[in-house]
Amino acid sequence: MYPGGLRTRSTKVMREKYTVEWVEKAIKGMLPHNKLGDVQRKHVFVYMGPDHPHAAQKPVELKVK
What we know:
65 residues; mainly alpha; 3 helices; 0% strand
């Protein structure tokens, strides 16, 4: 009820419009919340679609229902 209060996005909106941020937020929640987790998050890259610079690693597509 306060002006400029908490702004939230539902899971449905995040999944439809902000898929990369949605996956990154889910990964962040699974990692430890300390310095080790900060280092691990720097090594995670999420790309939208099949185009990415890591073709030599043969990644598997993740299908979200």
